[in-house]
Amino acid sequence: MINRFFWGIVAQVDAPSFADIVAAQTTIAPHLPATPAWSAPALDAAVGCNVMLKHEHVQPTGAFKVRGGVVLLAGLDAAQRARGLVACSTGNHGQSVAYAAATFDAPCRIVLPGPANPTKVRALRALGTDVQEHGDTLEDASSHARAIAASEGMRFVHPADDPALIAGVATLYVELLAAAPELDYLLVPVGGGSGAAAACLVTEALAPRCRVIGVQSAASPAAHDSWLGGELLKRPNRTSVEGLATGAGFATTQRIMRGRLHDFVLVTDAEVRAAQLLLLTHAHTVAEGAGAAGLAGLLALRERLAGHRVGVVVTGGNASPAELLNVLDQRRAAA
Ligand SMILES: Cc1ncc(COP(=O)(O)O)c(C=O)c1O
Predict the structure, then answer these.
(1) pLDDT at 12
(2) Ligand 1 centroid to 302 CA: how many Å?
(3) What is the pLDDT of residues 63-73, one digit of tens each?
(4) Domain count for the chain
(5) Residue 241's domain is classified under what CATH number?
(6) Tens-place pLDDT, residues 24-53
(7) E strands along the chain, which residues?
(8) Residue 167 belongs to what domain range?
(9) 90, 112 in Cβ contact below 8 A?
(10) Which atom from ligand 1 is nearest to the alpha carbon of 188?
(11) 246 Cα nearest atom in ligand 1
(12) Is the pLDDT assigned to residue 258 strictly greater than 50?
């Protein structure tokens, strides 16, 4: 099936099988050790349920996406790697591709919408990546990255709709469910939906009674609205929460989430900042906005989730200094 959308003509790719996800675990094992998963008693007391935090912000790139990049690059042959890779990103997908490209010795170019988070730009440059800022939104950056791919013969790496990326990020849910097999709910931040789609596939195979809930910003609700409406929709993309800043539903991740995702909540950017502060003060965890969105979703659903065992993935920790000051300002304002 072919889907025509403003991201271009997108071939709808297959979802990875559970066997692909198990194979991805073997692929990443020599590159990325399992990340910790544990509870913070002060956080549990503050939110009224047992929260199992999965700490993906401790990845070498500071975000869960790197799992996907490593699996994707590991699956390319020498000629494909030599052509190089180009991606558009608000930062963490870019770091994932760049980290894997450095690991497998492939040229890499990343296009970011401006103004880009300086923490992410610095990390990309440290990986030896060619970094460009283009346009104001991920959609602007995508058009530019696709043009580079077409003119220079590089491979365009979509931010979510790629079975290797989904299988790679799925490994985090295999790890989480091995550490906490009895979870009732899993709260997953959503931008393009690779993480939520992966969570759906893994829970379906390993923990069918665990309900996956997606969380997106109300200021960029494309994935939420696409899931609710059952069709790929464009929406304004105005959130300041980088990882959630997507203006379109994507074909493959939406198809996986449809019928598998239990629910999908929208939170405000202010609620995301409040969750960042709570992680800082009650769980000694520095999260970027998207990394705290799962907890923001939990807080929005607090009454429904009270007393349950809830998995929350801290998907990333690449907060800029300005973002961290903003988070701490809430504390000052409340004092
Ligand atoms: C830290 C973080 N969390 C969550 C997301 C959302 O992931 P996805 O686009 O797979 O839905 C991203 C996307 O870049 C991210 O960087």
Answers:
(1) 63
(2) 23
(3) 999 999 999 99
(4) 2
(5) 3.40.50.1100
(6) 999 999 999 999 999 999 999 999 999 999
(7) 2-5, 8-11, 37-38, 50-55, 85-88, 108-112, 130-133, 155-157, 185-189, 211-217, 263-267, 309-314
(8) 16-64+163-334
(9) yes
(10) 4
(11) 9
(12) yes
